Amino acid sequence: MPASLSPFAPIHQISAAFASGAASPVALTETYLDRIGALDGKLGAFVDVYADQARQAAEGAEKAIRSGHRIGPLHGVPIALKDLVEMEGRVTTGGSAAWRDRRSQVTATIVHRLIAAGMIVIGKVLTVEFAYGGWGTNQHMGTPWNPWDMDEHRVPGGSSCGSGVAVAAGLTAAAIGTDTGGSVRLPASFCGIVGLKTTVGRISTWGVLPLSETLDTIGPMTRSVEDAALLFDALQGPDPKDPNTLRRDNADVLAPLRRGVAGLRLAALPAAEREGIDPEVLANYDESLRRLESLGATIVPIELPLHIAAYAAPVATIIASEGYANLRETVEHGNLALDRHVRERVLAGKSFSAQDYVLTLRLQRRLRQAMLEAMEGIDALLTPTTTSAALPVAGIDEGKTPATLTRMGNFVEMCGLSLPNGFTAGGLPTSLQILCRGYDEATALRIGWAYEQATEWHRRTPPGVS
Q1: Mapped to the 3 state alphabet, what secondary structure does the chain carry?
Q2: Which of 159, 321, 388, 418 is catalytic?
Q3: What is the mean pLDDT of residues 404-410?
Q4: pLDDT digits (tens, 9 = 90+) for 272-311
Q5: Buried-most residue among 52, 142, 381, 444 (CB within 10 A)?
Protein backbone atom coordinates (compact mmCIF):
# COMPACT_ATOMS: atom_id res chain seq x y z
CA MET A 1 0.00 0.00 0.00
CA PRO A 2 1.54 3.37 -1.02
CA ALA A 3 2.48 5.64 1.87
CA SER A 4 0.90 9.07 2.29
CA LEU A 5 3.01 12.08 1.39
CA SER A 6 3.18 15.28 3.39
CA PRO A 7 1.29 18.08 1.64
CA PHE A 8 4.46 20.11 2.17
CA ALA A 9 6.73 17.62 0.40
CA PRO A 10 8.77 19.24 -2.39
CA ILE A 11 8.22 18.06 -5.95
CA HIS A 12 11.51 16.23 -6.26
CA GLN A 13 10.58 14.08 -3.24
CA ILE A 14 7.06 13.56 -4.56
CA SER A 15 8.50 12.51 -7.92
CA ALA A 16 10.85 9.98 -6.38
CA ALA A 17 8.01 8.51 -4.30
CA PHE A 18 5.77 8.20 -7.36
CA ALA A 19 8.55 6.58 -9.40
CA SER A 20 9.25 3.96 -6.72
CA GLY A 21 5.59 3.25 -6.05
CA ALA A 22 5.95 4.46 -2.48
CA ALA A 23 3.25 7.12 -2.99
CA SER A 24 0.24 7.68 -5.20
CA PRO A 25 -0.79 10.64 -7.41
CA VAL A 26 -4.41 9.85 -6.55
CA ALA A 27 -3.80 9.99 -2.80
CA LEU A 28 -1.75 13.18 -3.00
CA THR A 29 -4.35 14.90 -5.16
CA GLU A 30 -7.04 13.94 -2.64
CA THR A 31 -4.86 15.31 0.16
CA TYR A 32 -4.65 18.68 -1.57
CA LEU A 33 -8.36 18.74 -2.40
CA ASP A 34 -9.20 17.92 1.22
CA ARG A 35 -6.93 20.70 2.45
CA ILE A 36 -8.40 23.18 0.02
CA GLY A 37 -11.85 22.27 1.29
CA ALA A 38 -10.78 22.60 4.92
CA LEU A 39 -8.54 25.67 4.76
CA ASP A 40 -9.29 27.80 1.73
CA GLY A 41 -12.48 29.21 3.15
CA LYS A 42 -10.23 31.38 5.30
CA LEU A 43 -7.10 31.52 3.15
CA GLY A 44 -8.95 32.56 -0.02
CA ALA A 45 -6.23 31.46 -2.43
CA PHE A 46 -8.38 29.66 -5.00
CA VAL A 47 -10.75 31.19 -7.51
CA ASP A 48 -11.79 27.81 -8.94
CA VAL A 49 -10.94 24.21 -8.05
CA TYR A 50 -10.99 21.56 -10.78
CA ALA A 51 -11.70 18.68 -8.42
CA ASP A 52 -13.30 16.17 -10.80
CA GLN A 53 -10.82 16.79 -13.59
CA ALA A 54 -7.88 16.64 -11.19
CA ARG A 55 -9.06 13.28 -9.87
CA GLN A 56 -9.40 11.91 -13.40
CA ALA A 57 -5.93 13.17 -14.33
CA ALA A 58 -4.46 11.68 -11.14
CA GLU A 59 -6.00 8.29 -11.90
CA GLY A 60 -4.57 8.42 -15.40
CA ALA A 61 -1.14 9.43 -14.13
CA GLU A 62 -1.14 6.66 -11.55
CA LYS A 63 -2.01 4.00 -14.12
CA ALA A 64 0.62 5.32 -16.53
CA ILE A 65 3.37 5.41 -13.91
CA ARG A 66 2.53 1.93 -12.61
CA SER A 67 2.55 0.53 -16.15
CA GLY A 68 6.02 1.92 -16.84
CA HIS A 69 4.87 4.92 -18.88
CA ARG A 70 6.18 7.66 -16.60
CA ILE A 71 6.73 10.81 -18.65
CA GLY A 72 9.24 12.46 -16.35
CA PRO A 73 9.79 14.00 -12.91
CA LEU A 74 6.62 16.12 -12.97
CA HIS A 75 4.23 13.32 -13.91
CA GLY A 76 1.27 13.17 -11.54
CA VAL A 77 2.21 16.30 -9.59
CA PRO A 78 -0.60 18.86 -8.95
CA ILE A 79 -0.06 22.52 -9.79
CA ALA A 80 -2.20 25.68 -9.56
CA LEU A 81 -2.37 28.43 -12.17
CA LYS A 82 -2.47 32.15 -11.53
CA ASP A 83 -5.81 33.44 -12.78
CA LEU A 84 -4.22 35.20 -15.73
CA VAL A 85 -3.45 31.93 -17.50
CA GLU A 86 -5.96 30.99 -20.19
CA MET A 87 -7.50 27.51 -20.33
CA GLU A 88 -10.05 27.04 -23.07
CA GLY A 89 -13.57 26.87 -21.67
CA ARG A 90 -12.48 27.88 -18.18
CA VAL A 91 -13.20 31.17 -16.47
CA THR A 92 -10.14 33.45 -16.42
CA THR A 93 -10.91 36.60 -14.45
CA GLY A 94 -7.56 38.36 -14.33
CA GLY A 95 -8.46 39.03 -10.70
CA SER A 96 -11.34 41.26 -11.73
CA ALA A 97 -14.87 40.85 -10.43
CA ALA A 98 -15.96 42.56 -13.64
CA TRP A 99 -14.64 39.52 -15.55
CA ARG A 100 -16.13 36.81 -13.30
CA ASP A 101 -17.89 35.20 -16.28
CA ARG A 102 -15.09 35.66 -18.83
CA ARG A 103 -14.35 32.28 -20.43
CA SER A 104 -11.08 31.58 -22.20
CA GLN A 105 -11.14 30.91 -25.92
CA VAL A 106 -7.58 29.54 -26.00
CA THR A 107 -5.18 27.55 -23.84
CA ALA A 108 -1.85 29.13 -22.93
CA THR A 109 1.36 27.58 -24.18
CA ILE A 110 2.56 26.98 -20.63
CA VAL A 111 -0.58 24.95 -19.85
CA HIS A 112 0.08 22.72 -22.84
CA ARG A 113 3.64 22.23 -21.59
CA LEU A 114 2.60 21.46 -18.02
CA ILE A 115 0.08 18.88 -19.21
CA ALA A 116 2.63 17.42 -21.63
CA ALA A 117 4.94 16.96 -18.63
CA GLY A 118 2.16 15.03 -16.89
CA MET A 119 1.21 17.67 -14.34
CA ILE A 120 -2.30 17.93 -12.89
CA VAL A 121 -3.91 21.37 -13.00
CA ILE A 122 -5.80 21.48 -9.71
CA GLY A 123 -7.31 24.94 -10.13
CA LYS A 124 -6.89 28.67 -10.58
CA VAL A 125 -5.58 30.95 -7.82
CA LEU A 126 -6.25 34.61 -7.17
CA THR A 127 -4.26 37.53 -8.49
CA VAL A 128 -4.31 41.23 -7.76
CA GLU A 129 -6.71 42.74 -10.29
CA PHE A 130 -5.00 42.80 -13.71
CA ALA A 131 -1.79 41.78 -11.86
CA TYR A 132 -1.20 45.45 -11.03
CA GLY A 133 -0.15 45.62 -7.38
CA GLY A 134 2.57 44.36 -5.08
CA TRP A 135 0.82 43.85 -1.74
CA GLY A 136 -1.53 41.08 -2.87
CA THR A 137 -4.78 42.88 -2.08
CA ASN A 138 -7.97 42.53 -4.08
CA GLN A 139 -10.83 44.84 -3.20
CA HIS A 140 -13.72 42.89 -4.74
CA MET A 141 -12.54 39.27 -4.91
CA GLY A 142 -10.86 39.20 -1.51
CA THR A 143 -7.27 39.35 -0.29
CA PRO A 144 -5.72 35.92 0.38
CA TRP A 145 -4.65 35.32 3.99
CA ASN A 146 -0.93 34.91 4.56
CA PRO A 147 -0.75 31.51 6.35
CA TRP A 148 2.18 32.51 8.56
CA ASP A 149 -0.18 34.45 10.82
CA MET A 150 -3.61 32.91 11.14
CA ASP A 151 -4.65 35.44 13.80
CA GLU A 152 -3.94 38.70 11.98
CA HIS A 153 -4.60 39.19 8.29
CA ARG A 154 -1.22 39.98 6.72
CA VAL A 155 -0.39 40.74 3.11
CA PRO A 156 0.46 37.71 0.97
CA GLY A 157 2.40 39.75 -1.58
CA GLY A 158 1.31 40.39 -5.13
CA SER A 159 0.38 40.14 -7.72
CA SER A 160 0.73 36.34 -7.54
CA CYS A 161 -0.93 36.37 -4.12
CA GLY A 162 -2.99 33.20 -4.48
CA SER A 163 0.00 31.32 -5.85
CA GLY A 164 2.13 32.24 -2.84
CA VAL A 165 -0.54 31.34 -0.29
CA ALA A 166 -1.52 28.06 -1.98
CA VAL A 167 2.06 26.77 -2.04
CA ALA A 168 2.98 28.03 1.44
CA ALA A 169 -0.16 26.51 2.99
CA GLY A 170 0.30 23.10 1.40
CA LEU A 171 -2.75 23.34 -0.89
CA THR A 172 -0.74 22.39 -3.99
CA ALA A 173 2.77 21.22 -4.81
CA ALA A 174 3.55 24.31 -6.90
CA ALA A 175 1.96 27.25 -8.66
CA ILE A 176 2.56 29.45 -11.66
CA GLY A 177 3.12 33.15 -11.08
CA THR A 178 3.94 36.14 -13.24
CA ASP A 179 6.50 38.85 -12.53
CA THR A 180 6.38 42.33 -14.06
CA GLY A 181 7.91 44.31 -11.20
CA GLY A 182 8.38 41.62 -8.57
CA SER A 183 5.11 39.69 -8.58
CA VAL A 184 6.70 36.22 -8.25
CA ARG A 185 9.38 37.29 -5.79
CA LEU A 186 7.22 39.44 -3.48
CA PRO A 187 4.73 36.70 -2.55
CA ALA A 188 7.61 34.22 -2.36
CA SER A 189 9.21 36.51 0.21
CA PHE A 190 6.13 37.23 2.31
CA CYS A 191 4.92 33.60 2.19
CA GLY A 192 8.27 31.90 2.82
CA ILE A 193 8.62 29.95 -0.44
CA VAL A 194 10.84 29.90 -3.54
CA GLY A 195 10.05 32.09 -6.56
CA LEU A 196 11.99 32.27 -9.84
CA LYS A 197 11.75 35.44 -11.91
CA THR A 198 12.80 34.39 -15.41
CA THR A 199 14.25 36.53 -18.19
CA VAL A 200 11.88 37.94 -20.81
CA GLY A 201 11.68 35.32 -23.57
CA ARG A 202 12.64 32.29 -21.51
CA ILE A 203 9.05 31.10 -21.02
CA SER A 204 6.23 31.86 -23.43
CA THR A 205 3.65 34.36 -22.24
CA TRP A 206 1.25 33.50 -25.08
CA GLY A 207 -2.19 32.90 -23.63
CA VAL A 208 -1.43 34.77 -20.41
CA LEU A 209 -3.37 38.01 -19.91
CA PRO A 210 -0.83 40.82 -20.40
CA LEU A 211 -0.12 43.81 -18.24
CA SER A 212 3.15 45.05 -19.74
CA GLU A 213 4.55 43.06 -22.65
CA THR A 214 7.95 44.70 -22.23
CA LEU A 215 8.35 43.44 -18.65
CA ASP A 216 5.94 40.50 -18.16
CA THR A 217 7.55 37.14 -17.31
CA ILE A 218 6.32 33.73 -16.14
CA GLY A 219 7.87 32.04 -13.12
CA PRO A 220 7.45 28.92 -10.97
CA MET A 221 6.60 29.22 -7.27
CA THR A 222 7.65 26.18 -5.25
CA ARG A 223 8.87 24.87 -1.90
CA SER A 224 12.44 24.19 -3.02
CA VAL A 225 15.01 25.49 -5.48
CA GLU A 226 15.26 22.11 -7.20
CA ASP A 227 11.51 22.19 -7.81
CA ALA A 228 11.82 25.62 -9.43
CA ALA A 229 14.55 24.25 -11.69
CA LEU A 230 12.41 21.27 -12.71
CA LEU A 231 9.47 23.51 -13.61
CA PHE A 232 11.68 26.01 -15.44
CA ASP A 233 13.15 23.16 -17.47
CA ALA A 234 9.68 21.97 -18.49
CA LEU A 235 8.32 25.43 -19.34
CA GLN A 236 11.21 27.09 -21.18
CA GLY A 237 11.77 27.02 -24.90
CA PRO A 238 10.81 28.56 -28.23
CA ASP A 239 7.17 29.23 -29.02
CA PRO A 240 6.30 30.62 -32.48
CA LYS A 241 3.35 32.41 -30.85
CA ASP A 242 5.73 34.41 -28.64
CA PRO A 243 8.58 35.95 -30.69
CA ASN A 244 10.50 36.84 -27.53
CA THR A 245 11.13 33.14 -26.93
CA LEU A 246 13.11 32.85 -30.16
CA ARG A 247 16.00 34.91 -28.74
CA ARG A 248 18.00 32.12 -27.10
CA ASP A 249 18.54 28.38 -27.00
CA ASN A 250 17.24 26.49 -23.98
CA ALA A 251 19.28 26.68 -20.79
CA ASP A 252 20.57 23.61 -18.95
CA VAL A 253 19.69 24.41 -15.36
CA LEU A 254 19.67 20.87 -13.95
CA ALA A 255 23.25 19.73 -14.66
CA PRO A 256 24.95 22.69 -12.90
CA LEU A 257 22.47 22.82 -10.00
CA ARG A 258 24.69 20.98 -7.51
CA ARG A 259 28.05 22.53 -8.38
CA GLY A 260 28.15 24.72 -5.28
CA VAL A 261 29.31 28.30 -4.98
CA ALA A 262 33.06 27.84 -4.44
CA GLY A 263 34.88 30.35 -6.63
CA LEU A 264 31.81 32.48 -7.39
CA ARG A 265 31.93 36.23 -6.83
CA LEU A 266 28.74 37.54 -5.26
CA ALA A 267 28.05 41.25 -4.85
CA ALA A 268 26.58 42.60 -1.63
CA LEU A 269 24.00 45.37 -1.44
CA PRO A 270 25.84 48.72 -1.32
CA ALA A 271 25.76 50.41 2.08
CA ALA A 272 23.71 53.33 0.76
CA GLU A 273 20.95 50.93 -0.33
CA ARG A 274 20.48 49.46 3.16
CA GLU A 275 18.61 52.52 4.43
CA GLY A 276 14.93 51.85 5.03
CA ILE A 277 15.27 48.07 5.33
CA ASP A 278 13.94 46.49 8.52
CA PRO A 279 16.77 45.55 10.94
CA GLU A 280 15.59 41.93 11.22
CA VAL A 281 15.57 41.61 7.44
CA LEU A 282 19.08 43.05 7.28
CA ALA A 283 20.33 40.75 10.02
CA ASN A 284 19.08 37.67 8.16
CA TYR A 285 20.50 39.02 4.90
CA ASP A 286 23.93 39.56 6.46
CA GLU A 287 23.86 36.05 7.88
CA SER A 288 23.05 34.76 4.37
CA LEU A 289 26.16 36.47 3.03
CA ARG A 290 28.26 34.88 5.75
CA ARG A 291 26.80 31.46 5.02
CA LEU A 292 27.55 31.72 1.30
CA GLU A 293 31.05 32.95 2.08
CA SER A 294 31.56 29.91 4.31
CA LEU A 295 30.59 27.73 1.34
CA GLY A 296 33.42 29.18 -0.72
CA ALA A 297 31.91 32.21 -2.43
CA THR A 298 33.67 35.58 -2.37
CA ILE A 299 31.52 38.53 -1.32
CA VAL A 300 32.51 41.62 -3.26
CA PRO A 301 31.36 45.26 -3.48
CA ILE A 302 29.50 46.64 -6.48
CA GLU A 303 28.79 50.13 -7.75
CA LEU A 304 25.31 50.23 -9.20
CA PRO A 305 24.61 52.53 -12.17
CA LEU A 306 21.54 53.98 -10.47
CA HIS A 307 20.15 54.09 -6.95
CA ILE A 308 17.68 51.19 -6.66
CA ALA A 309 14.79 53.46 -5.65
CA ALA A 310 15.29 55.47 -8.84
CA TYR A 311 13.95 52.59 -10.93
CA ALA A 312 10.45 53.23 -9.62
CA ALA A 313 9.63 56.03 -12.07
CA PRO A 314 10.76 54.39 -15.34
CA VAL A 315 9.19 51.06 -14.38
CA ALA A 316 5.92 52.86 -13.62
CA THR A 317 6.06 54.64 -16.98
CA ILE A 318 6.34 51.37 -18.90
CA ILE A 319 3.79 49.40 -16.88
CA ALA A 320 1.21 52.20 -16.77
CA SER A 321 1.61 53.06 -20.47
CA GLU A 322 1.33 49.48 -21.65
CA GLY A 323 -1.26 48.61 -19.01
CA TYR A 324 -3.49 51.44 -20.17
CA ALA A 325 -3.10 50.37 -23.79
CA ASN A 326 -4.21 46.85 -22.83
CA LEU A 327 -6.99 47.76 -20.40
CA ARG A 328 -8.24 51.18 -21.44
CA GLU A 329 -11.73 50.05 -22.47
CA THR A 330 -12.24 48.27 -19.15
CA VAL A 331 -10.91 50.97 -16.81
CA GLU A 332 -12.66 53.77 -18.71
CA HIS A 333 -15.99 51.98 -18.23
CA GLY A 334 -17.45 53.86 -15.29
CA ASN A 335 -19.99 51.23 -14.23
CA LEU A 336 -17.65 48.27 -13.71
CA ALA A 337 -16.71 47.18 -10.19
CA LEU A 338 -12.95 47.69 -10.31
CA ASP A 339 -10.43 48.03 -7.49
CA ARG A 340 -10.11 51.79 -7.19
CA HIS A 341 -6.36 51.64 -6.56
CA VAL A 342 -5.79 49.45 -9.61
CA ARG A 343 -8.01 51.67 -11.75
CA GLU A 344 -5.95 54.69 -10.68
CA ARG A 345 -2.68 52.91 -11.54
CA VAL A 346 -3.92 51.96 -14.99
CA LEU A 347 -5.46 55.37 -15.70
CA ALA A 348 -2.12 56.96 -14.85
CA GLY A 349 -0.94 55.57 -18.17
CA LYS A 350 -3.03 58.22 -19.95
CA SER A 351 -0.75 60.92 -18.60
CA PHE A 352 2.40 59.60 -20.31
CA SER A 353 3.12 60.88 -23.79
CA ALA A 354 4.60 58.87 -26.64
CA GLN A 355 7.82 60.79 -25.98
CA ASP A 356 7.81 59.71 -22.32
CA TYR A 357 7.37 56.11 -23.32
CA VAL A 358 10.01 56.07 -26.06
CA LEU A 359 12.57 57.88 -23.92
CA THR A 360 11.98 55.40 -21.11
CA LEU A 361 12.62 52.48 -23.46
CA ARG A 362 15.86 54.16 -24.54
CA LEU A 363 16.80 54.60 -20.88
CA GLN A 364 16.08 50.92 -20.33
CA ARG A 365 18.57 49.94 -23.05
CA ARG A 366 21.26 52.23 -21.59
CA LEU A 367 20.78 51.01 -18.03
CA ARG A 368 20.71 47.39 -19.13
CA GLN A 369 24.15 47.86 -20.66
CA ALA A 370 25.36 49.82 -17.64
CA MET A 371 24.27 46.98 -15.35
CA LEU A 372 26.13 44.44 -17.48
CA GLU A 373 29.24 46.57 -17.10
CA ALA A 374 28.71 46.90 -13.33
CA MET A 375 28.38 43.10 -13.12
CA GLU A 376 31.64 42.47 -14.98
CA GLY A 377 33.47 39.72 -13.09
CA ILE A 378 30.51 39.26 -10.72
CA ASP A 379 28.24 36.20 -10.83
CA ALA A 380 25.26 37.59 -8.90
CA LEU A 381 23.98 40.52 -6.88
CA LEU A 382 22.49 39.53 -3.52
CA THR A 383 19.83 41.63 -1.78
CA PRO A 384 16.90 41.08 0.53
CA THR A 385 13.77 40.48 -1.53
CA THR A 386 11.57 42.84 0.47
CA THR A 387 12.41 45.58 2.93
CA SER A 388 10.19 44.04 5.64
CA ALA A 389 8.30 40.89 6.49
CA ALA A 390 4.57 40.71 5.71
CA LEU A 391 2.64 43.69 7.10
CA PRO A 392 -0.94 43.70 8.39
CA VAL A 393 -3.42 44.29 5.58
CA ALA A 394 -5.19 46.96 7.61
CA GLY A 395 -2.10 49.13 7.81
CA ILE A 396 -0.72 49.15 4.28
CA ASP A 397 -0.51 52.21 2.08
CA GLU A 398 -1.76 51.34 -1.42
CA GLY A 399 0.06 54.40 -2.71
CA LYS A 400 3.35 52.66 -1.95
CA THR A 401 4.76 49.35 -3.12
CA PRO A 402 6.90 46.62 -1.55
CA ALA A 403 8.74 46.24 -4.86
CA THR A 404 11.63 48.56 -3.93
CA LEU A 405 14.28 45.86 -4.33
CA THR A 406 12.70 43.85 -7.15
CA ARG A 407 11.79 46.38 -9.89
CA MET A 408 15.38 46.95 -10.96
CA GLY A 409 15.71 43.33 -12.06
CA ASN A 410 12.73 43.65 -14.40
CA PHE A 411 13.85 46.96 -15.86
CA VAL A 412 17.38 45.84 -16.77
CA GLU A 413 16.25 42.34 -17.82
CA MET A 414 17.95 40.34 -15.11
CA CYS A 415 16.67 37.04 -13.77
CA GLY A 416 16.18 36.51 -10.07
CA LEU A 417 15.53 33.87 -7.45
CA SER A 418 13.93 34.52 -4.07
CA LEU A 419 14.12 31.96 -1.28
CA PRO A 420 13.62 31.83 2.50
CA ASN A 421 16.60 33.01 4.58
CA GLY A 422 15.23 33.34 8.09
CA PHE A 423 12.39 34.50 10.29
CA THR A 424 11.57 37.53 12.38
CA ALA A 425 11.15 37.27 16.13
CA GLY A 426 7.41 37.15 15.45
CA GLY A 427 7.74 34.08 13.24
CA LEU A 428 7.36 35.73 9.82
CA PRO A 429 9.61 34.65 6.93
CA THR A 430 12.27 36.82 5.32
CA SER A 431 13.85 36.25 1.93
CA LEU A 432 17.10 36.41 -0.01
CA GLN A 433 17.07 37.68 -3.60
CA ILE A 434 19.71 36.42 -6.06
CA LEU A 435 19.89 38.59 -9.19
CA CYS A 436 21.88 37.38 -12.20
CA ARG A 437 22.42 38.56 -15.76
CA GLY A 438 19.60 37.95 -18.16
CA TYR A 439 19.36 34.34 -19.35
CA ASP A 440 21.59 33.12 -16.51
CA GLU A 441 18.88 31.35 -14.52
CA ALA A 442 21.28 28.41 -14.14
CA THR A 443 23.60 30.45 -11.91
CA ALA A 444 20.78 31.91 -9.81
CA LEU A 445 19.40 28.42 -9.19
CA ARG A 446 22.88 27.02 -8.48
CA ILE A 447 23.54 29.66 -5.81
CA GLY A 448 20.08 29.19 -4.34
CA TRP A 449 20.46 25.40 -4.20
CA ALA A 450 23.80 25.65 -2.40
CA TYR A 451 22.38 28.09 0.14
CA GLU A 452 19.26 26.00 0.64
CA GLN A 453 21.27 22.83 1.29
CA ALA A 454 23.24 24.62 3.99
CA THR A 455 20.16 25.95 5.81
CA GLU A 456 16.84 24.72 7.14
CA TRP A 457 14.59 27.71 6.48
CA HIS A 458 12.80 26.14 3.51
CA ARG A 459 11.77 23.16 5.67
CA ARG A 460 9.63 25.24 8.00
CA THR A 461 5.88 25.28 7.47
CA PRO A 462 3.23 27.71 8.75
CA PRO A 463 2.17 26.33 12.15
CA GLY A 464 -1.47 27.27 11.76
CA VAL A 465 -1.97 25.07 8.68
CA SER A 466 0.60 22.31 9.24
Answers
A1: CCCCCCCCCCHHHHHHHHHHCCCCHHHHHHHHHHHHHHHHHHHCCEEEECHHHHHHHHHHHHHHHHCCCCCCCCCCCEEEEECCECCCCCECCCCCHHHCCCECCCCCHHHHHHHHCCCEEEEEECCCHHHCCCCCCCCCCCCCCCCCCCCCCECCCCCCHHHHHHHHCCCCCCEEEEECCCCCHHHHHHHCCEEEECCCCCECCCCECCCCCCCCEEEEEECCHHHHHHHHHHHECCECCEHHHHCCCCCCCCCCCCCCCCCCEEECCCHHHHCCCCHHHHHHHHHHHHHHHHCCCEEECCCCCCCHHHHHHHHHHHHHHHHHHHHHHHHCCCCCCCCHHHHHHHHHHHHCCHHHHHHHHHHHHHHHHHHHHHCCCCCEEEEECCCCCCCEHHHCCCCCCCHHHCHHHHHCCCEEEEEEEEECCCCCEEEEEEEECCCCHHHHHHHHHHHHHCCCHHHCCCCCCC
A2: 159
A3: 98
A4: 999 999 999 999 999 999 999 999 999 999 999 999 999 9
A5: 444
